[in-house]
Specification:
about 500 residues; alpha/beta; Hexokinase, domain 1; Nucleotidyltransferase, domain 5; 5-stranded mixed beta sheet; 15 helices; D-glucose binding
Length: about 500
């Protein structure tokens, strides 16, 4: 009996010892995995690094590409498109002008009442219209007939005192946010549809001509005075109230920039130079690429797996469409190689773009002591439950790395524009003010991104020059800016008010 008891005790002790060994091994394994997690984060941070010197190299490269793109078509990754906007609003515009903003499954009609010198915008009215899904893939006639009819209905609410006198047409600014090869201030051929539209009969045709035909069909007496890109609209809207505005930048789902260039600095601009001596250039800067850009394995993978490999690399590093997915890719690597979320990889973490930049922003701005917002986002979006504070802190750190890189690169791009037009230094005895108008949800809502962009620009310029550079939020340039450009390119400028 005693022998059996002793044997049982030995077996029991062995079991306890084995269990203890397993615990220790597990802890060592977890400890080793945590070291691996920290190693992945550190490597990622180093690869995303954008120190001052590197940013200056990027801005220099941007300036070189700008020169090349202005010299001839296809000479640069930057298209440097001539917008044909050679007159920006002065703030003195007067009268009633319309805008049509078509950029997706909805379009907006706007009516602006401009009061003239010193009075600015007296009144704005707008109406949003949903485009029936079948019209997005039907014919150009059907789509533009629907838009013209909706526009006519909106115009019918115009106050009687604003009806144009006999012989004078209403004037419209048309924001068309699809790839267009512009041929004049009020004409441009559609290169291709995006955003779910697929109407082949208008590809290669003048979109203003298609809209005009539909307006004439229903007797709507209105002319398109300006065909506008949303970035150019952002610049125009800001210029209306501040004559020191020299560039417009969109930082939203995508990114782009437009700026005011001296006409004689555009070799590919054939024909007569505009009287103003200036021309707004739509850079299409999202396609900028340079060997100095701090790319990681996650950026390369995102690029290769996307719809446009090798294109829009600058956009893929700094715009709202992509930032959240870069964070997701880093989390996935840590889950696969270091059991970051436990022994199994959360299935949702493998879904591209499931983690959106607004969610990333919410986690990045979490100020609660237990990072509750981070925990809730991981649970609700990725179905990752019961995360520790240690894990949540790493998630915030990844958000910080990605956002800081994006903001610093955006600042380098802006410096490139300032260099190109000679506004990156202060000349003796001269303190010329230069304002950059920014718009887009990323700039407007992602506070840490915006703050980092502004501080980086100051760091790159130095205190003296930074004092002469302003950043201004220009909201709704795609709508209001289009109407303002219709006013500055009106057929009736200089005519006596009737």
């Amino acid at each position: 009996m005693r022998k059996v008891a002793v044997t049982a005790a030995v077996v029991s002790a062995a079991a306890v010892f084995s269990a203890a060994v397993l615990v220790v091994r597990h802890q060592l394994k977890r400890s080793g995995k945590w070291v691996q997690v920290l190693s992945i984060v550190k490597e990622f941070e180093e690869q995303c690094g954008a120190p001052t010197e590197k940013l200056k190299q990027i801005s220099d490269a941007m300036e070189v590409e700008m020169h090349a793109g202005l010299a001839s078509e296809g000479a640069s990754k930057l298209k440097m498109l001539i917008s044909y906007v050679d007159k920006l609003p002065t703030g003195d515009e007067k009268g009633l002008f319309y805008a049509l903003d078509l950029g997706g499954t909805n379009f907006r009609a706007l009516r602006l009442h401009l009061g003239g010198k010193g009075k600015g915008v007296v009144n704005i009215e707008s109406e949003e219209v949903s485009i029936p899904p079948h019209l997005m893939t039907s014919s150009s006639n059907e789509l533009f007939d629907f838009i013209a009819t909706s526009l006519a209905k909106f115009i019918s609410s115009e106050p009687e005192e604003f009806h144009p006198p006999p012989g004078r047409q209403r004037e419209l600014g048309f924001t068309f946010s699809f790839p267009v090869s512009q041929t004049s201030i009020a004409s441009g051929t559609l290169v291709k549809w995006t955003k779910g539209f697929s109407i082949e009969d208008v590809v290669g045709e003048d979109v203003v001509g298609a809209l005009t035909k539909s307006m004439e069909k229903i007797g709507l007496d209105m002319r398109v005075a300006a065909l506008v890109n949303d970035t150019v609209g952002t610049l125009a809207k800001a210029r209306f109230s501040d004559q020191d505005v020299i560039a417009g930048v969109i930082l939203g789902t995508g990114t782009n920039a437009a700026y005011v260039e001296r006409a004689h600095a555009i070799p590919k601009c054939q024909g007569h130079l505009p009287k103003s001596g200036e021309m707004v250039i739509n850079m299409e800067w999202g396609n900028f690429r340079s060997s100095y850009l701090p790319l990681t394995e996650y950026d390369h993978a995102l690029d290769l797996e996307g719809l446009n490999p090798g294109e829009q690399m600058f956009e893929k590093l700094i715009s709202g469409m992509y930032l959240g997915d870069i964070v997701r890719r880093a989390l996935l690597k840590m889950a696969e190689e270091a059991d970051f979320f436990g022994d199994t990889v959360p299935p949702k973490l493998r879904i591209p773009f499931i983690l959106r930049t607004p969610d990333m922003s919410a986690m990045h701005h979490d100020t609660s002591s237990d990072l509750k917002v981070v925990g809730n986002k991981l649970r609700d979006i990725l179905e990752i439950h019961n995360t520790s504070l240690k894990v949540r802190k790493i998630v915030v750190e990844l958000c910080d790395i990605v956002a800081i890189r994006g903001a610093r690169l955006a600042a380098a791009g802006i410096l490139g524009i300032l260099k190109k037009i000679g506004r990156d230094t202060v000349k003796d005895g001269e303190k010329q003010r230069s304002v950059i108008a920014l718009d887009g949800g990323l700039f407007e809502h992602y506070t840490k991104f915006r703050t980092c962009l502004e501080s980086t620009l100051k760091e790159l310029l130095g205190d003296d020059t930074a004092e002469t550079i302003g950043i201004e939020h220009s909201n709704d340039g795609s709508g209001i800016g289009a109407a303002l450009l219709a006013s500055s390119h009106s057929h009736y400028l200089g005519m006596e008010e009737s």
